[in-house]
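This follows on from our talk about sequence and fold. I would like you to pick a protein and set down its sequence and fold. Go ahead and set the record down below:
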Amino acid sequence: MWLQLSYLLCLLIVVDFIKEDIYAMAQNSAQTNISSRINPRVEDDEDFVPYQGERFTVFDWMLFRSLSKTNRGNILLSPISIKLALVLLYEGAQDQTAYELAGAMQLPVSSPAIREKFNNIVKSLQAPSSAYILNLGSRIYIDDNILTRQRYAATIKTFYNTDVINANLSDTHAIAIKVNSWVNNITNGHIEKMIDDEKGLEDSVMLIVNGLFFKGAWRRKYFAPENSRVSKFYINANESINVPYMHTVSRFYYAESSRLDAKILRIPYDGSKFAMYIILPHTLTGMDHIVNEINSFTLARDVWAMQELPLDVWIPKFKFEFTSHLENTLRELGIRDIFDDTALLTGIAKTRRVSRRLRVSDVVHKTGIDMNENGTTAYAATEIQIGNKIEEGTFHANRPFVFYIEDETTGTILYIGKIQNPLNTSGTTGKVQQEFPSRFNPDTAIVTPNSVPVILSTEDRYSFFNIDLLQRVNENVEGNLILSPASAKIALTSLVEGTGGRTRHELLAALRLPAEEYIIRRIAERSLIPLKSQQNGTEIDVATRLWINPALAASNNYMTALKTYYGTDIQQLNFGNTNNAANIINSWVRENTRNNIKTIIQPGTLSADTQMVLTSSLYFKGRWLKSFDKDVTRVRCFYVPQNGCQDILMMENSSKYRYGNIASLDADVVEIPYSNGRTSMLIFLPSHKESDPYLQILFKDLSYVPMKTLLTSLNETELILAIPKFNIESKLDLRSPLMRMGIQDIFNSAANFTGIVFNKYLQLANIIQNAKIEVDEEGTIAAAVTELAVVPLMANMVSTFIVNRPFMFAIVDLVTSETLFAGRFMGPNADNSKGTI
């Protein structure tokens, strides 16, 4: 016989949306300008900056996806409540049991890091505030026959603020009263009975209870009860129901997600800490797509793309409860051992009857939510038993949608839910006995370094363009690749002041720039400063020139702004003689790249109708701070996908480098500093050569990790570092990647360049970049030129880091987090011509 830990209760937060009458929908009235309908009295100066630490929400969305696939109706769960309960199990788990819990929840690599992570979350959630109500608490009830390990009790009290209470669990009636009373108290009376079946406690030896309750009012009093109205909610293409809607016309942070094919709306609560996000599919059949595609990385990117816009918003009031048995869901996610006789939870307790051991018999999760005009109330409890697109400018949530409530100061998700039918008030999943194969493999366990929450400024958001562009270019390019995001960004930013309307909006959105001209100029000036320096053997030089047809009456204001804020000099050039014009531009390119790039304009490619050409060059020559000994360089094996081992010269050095394993990238990262003290090369190496041989997953995931956050995750480590000598040259047409990033108007007849020239219609023919890099024992030489043509419309004691398989690299300014150059090396015989698109 085994002792059963019969109930591990994780009480989830109740978010209580304060009830008010529903907002009246004026659907029969004519469409008026949304901005003019906004009440200026409810405006404030909120400057929303998304959370920038490494997100701890991968498990949250995996859990939501798994539940959604087996529940077609409304869903609500509290990921943080479940994780707080499970981590208390993890603290007492050993061997395979611990591996599975750590792997599924993607816990940090070490116990101190895990405890620090959860301790910060608990402290943040338990911090008192007059703006909202949030109750969080955990308790462990242990039977008198169990001898609790003192170390375990001290650990969970110190780091998780959880008390261990000894009680006679054989007296099931008394213990049920105690647990239900505690749960009822912490959820402000919303869960009266967590334990309905007292008989289920008969074999229990331990109960872990976590309770969370949240009640928040909307930051702005968006929804007036007198404006509420009943209207149709489309459950599917063939079925609709009448539901009460709240309505407002106001300013909200909003984004369109191409990956999710959905709209995302943010509604903040009082206190500037919590917000609800609503994810509305564009079509009635889009819910399954969202469920399959949503993850923390996609959301991080979409949230960073949010812009504050005037919106006409309609949201249904809803109130429902949801109960789920999570054993099968957790088994599917790889947490199996805690439910089996092999469970090893010896770190929690010693039993007096040593022939019997602890195991979890079920995980029950109770939640509820009430959302109305005033705000939200949500509650939850988890009991782990051991033993058609709508009009522009509107957000009409009249079909199934996903929502979540986030602590924006820590990136912690309190609740995730799905509304399939606002009128349904309850839902449940049954406990079905089913075997799920373990997906956990200790060899591929994800490791997370200590993460430091980083608040990014507007300048930091500007740097998101760098990896975004790299990812888009990577989608079309095979073989080795070198790109300079900084050079491309300088060229595009200098165009902004010459554009208007939608053309300008597209550029600002892709570059993550605000609308204010003075802020754009300030960012541009600050970005250029570190790109002109020569210090301790490392040289960086940027140059930008606008070549303009003398017959083009360009705006003097635009010309002045280019010189003053973007460091651009202006040169008149007769494009009628195309060969001469190409030679002059190519001569400038050779001069500014120290002859590393010979041409940017190939013979016969420059049109005689060209009106302007904007060229931006970036030259980098960096000497390693810690040089590699040439005598140690030798031929080694480099593993090329499908081709196996190929010989290549590898450099080696043994020294201290900043290094880390980044769980969200499933990659090892090392920083190799240059002699000027502010620039470094970062090498990204997938943790397992079989898992991502072509670096496609790495490139995708990297776009969701802020460079500043990544840099803070690296720690100084004694390393034997071995990297190949390599050189790459790429010629890239950036038109297609930029169009996929949302910059489209500048390339077609809709282009608006009225800030450059009046009464003449212009468009960009293409954006070409030539880039080159050489890496050897002494350091790095890299150069890039971007051209925009405007035409008329038409295993040791010391850790080793051996880069012997395809890797990604980036040259980064450590002060600004700016990516000067980035690329990938696929192998010595990956023809550089394949880097041309």
Notes: The two ends are 67 Å apart (CA to CA).
